Amino acid sequence: MKRDRTGSEPRARRAASSRGVRALAVFVAFAALMGVPDSAWALWTSTGSGTGAGTTSTLVAPSGVGATSSAGSSAAVVSWTAPTGGVAPVGYRIDRIDTATGAAAAACGSSATTLLTPTTCTDASVPDGTYRYVVSSVRAGWTSASAPSASVSVRTGVPTTTSLTSSDNPAFVGQSVTYTASVTAASGTPTGAVVFSSGGAALSCSGGSQTLSAGTATCIVVWASAGTRNVTAAYAGSAPFSASSSTAVAQSVVQRSQTVTFTSSAPGAATVGGGAYSVSATATSGLAVTFTSTTTAVCTVAGATVTFVGPGTCTVAADQGGSAAYAPAVQVTQSFAVKATQAISFTSSAPAAAMLGDPAYTLAATATSGLGVTFTSATPSVCVVAGTSVSFVSAGTCTVRADQAGNATWAAAAQVSQSFLVTPVPTAPVGLTVDSTPSSGTATWTTVSGYAYQCQVSNGSSVPVASEWSPCVSPFTFVPKNGNQTFFVRAVRGTSASTPASVNFKP
User: Fold this and answer.
1) According to a count of CB atoms within 10 Å of the terminal CB, is the N or C end of the chain lower?
2) Can you give the pLDDT at residue 495?
3) Could you tell me if 129 and 154 are in contact, meaning their C-beta atoms sit under 8 angstroms apart?
4) Cβ count near 35 (within 10 Å)
5) How far is the C-alpha of 395 from the C-alpha of 137, rounded, in Å?
6) Which residues, 6 or more positions from 385, have their beta carbon under 8 angstroms from its beta carbon?
7) Hey, what CATH class is 344-423 in?
8) Out of 3.30.420.40, 3.50.50.60, 3.40.50.1100, 2.60.40.10, which CATH number does the structure's domain 430-505 have?
9) Other Cβ atoms closer than 10 A to 380
10) DSSP 1-21
């Protein structure tokens, strides 16, 4: 029994001694842990009773912290580079520090209990101001703060409205059109630049200023072709003014209209095969006009020369086909009659010895057109015409005219005339000759149709005896008298006789 007691006491003392050693080890470790700075972390290699060894690792802060904010934006984008050494952080806490006051605030929605794991974040709804950002690595209550970022200014954008107007809509091809963009804000006057676009492509402005002046920018464009364009103006924004764009202006670009006018007068008496007609016309555009015939069976056109090939109505068309700037002109036409030519011929012979008191002369003439011919007297004091009948009213030269006025197919014929002498009495015969022998004589003279003739022979140069006239015709044979003699002949019509013609002869 004694050995038993003696043996148990030493075991109890050994157990108590072991518990004391373990307690001392925990205390020493705790004391050592409490003495480690924030950037360190203790790692234990073993647990339980006895003695052991531990290592301490460092919690490294992020590096390369940067912050940016777009003009007119109320947010800042923060980014950093994760630590590459030490223990890996569980996450990151971001703090925003006002450079003016030094006040710090949690940023990006992070906090001591809410950590971010990406290496970038957006700090939204930031009040206007200038800030620096600090990013801290966090692990189980341990933190390691980065160096602060460079200053970043946040300016909340002032909303703007951009409107666009066109100086001319519709506009003509080749016309300068001025587009005016007005950028307005609830407060202040926006500055910066405006981009003018058509169909999404930036316009090349030939004039104007695309930099805002008193909130206005302009762009001058000369459209080279017709069509409809959707023109817009986009304001890029300039702190604190936010960007804005106009609604599209549907710009209509059209060709100018033009008209064609004939400057040559249509011929009033065009005839088949007659002289050509030179046609001319102008267009208000100043562009050249072309000519064509729409009645090629009547007339043809070569360039500006119109040739007449058949009777009827000739229609010449004038056209101007337009250009990039001008629409085609409405066709205009010029029409006129082209007629066939005709000629008149007298078919009645003028009287060879018309004399007052003679029966009327009946006229006759034909036209190659087959149309009727009309007659008039050009000498109504000598002769008058009624229809086809010519009456003699005094001595003189009677001139009768024949006309054919034409119709839709035939041009008026050239006037023709017929003239003849009207005498009060017959005229003396002409061309009298006498050929005689003692036994026979022959007298000849020029006879005139319509006249009768009377002859006599007298001795010597005696005058004719009224009672001795006797009818005769040329050539006239007679028996000569003795000695010197005179042969007389006179023209007779009705009761009128001419002055005799005479020839002295001696057989």
Assistant:
1) N
2) 82
3) yes
4) 8
5) 148
6) 363, 375, 376, 377, 400
7) mainly beta
8) 2.60.40.10
9) 12
10) -HHHHHHHHHHHHHHHHHHHH
The full length of the chain comes to 507
pLDDT mean values, one per 10 residues, the chain (507 residues): 38 39 34 39 45 70 94 88 94 97 96 95 94 96 94 88 98 97 95 96 97 98 96 92 95 97 96 96 98 98 98 97 96 97 97 89 98 98 98 95 94 96 90 94 93 94 93 96 94 89 93
Q: Confirm or reject CATH 2.60.40.1230 for domain 63-154, answering yes or no.
A: no
The pLDDT assigned to 53 comes to 53
pLDDT value at residue 14: 39
Question: Between the CA of residue 243 and those of 75, 246, 279, what are the distances in Å?
Answer: 16, 11, 63
d(CA 277, CA 264): 9
Q: CA-to-CA distance for 34 and 401, rounded, in angstroms?
A: 151
* Residue 457 host element (H or E): strand 452-459
CB 190 within 8 Å of CB 160: yes
For Cα atoms 121, 244, 128, give the angle at the middle one, nearest 5 degrees: 45
Q: Alpha-carbon distance 165 to 232, whole Å? A: 9
CATH of the domain spanning 160-254, picked from 2.60.40.10, 1.10.443.10, 3.20.20.140, 2.30.110.10: 2.60.40.10
**Residue that the structure tokens 């001008």 belong to:** 326
Q: For position 55, what pLDDT does the model report?
A: 55
Residue 33 is predicted with a pLDDT of 35
CA–CA separation, 163 and 186 (whole Å): 14
| Bond prior to 471 in cis (omega within 30° of 0) | no
- For the domain made up of 260-339, give the CATH fold: Immunoglobulin-like (2.60.40)
Cα-Cα-Cα-Cα torsion 115, 118, 124, 126, nearest 10 degrees, comes to 70
SS3 490: strand
**DSSP state, residue 328:** P
Cut 0.70: pTM above it: no
Helix (H) or strand (E) holding 145: strand 142-145
Both tokens assigned to 90: 């569980």
Amino acid letter, 15: A
Q: Are 379 and 406 in contact (CB under 8 A)?
A: no
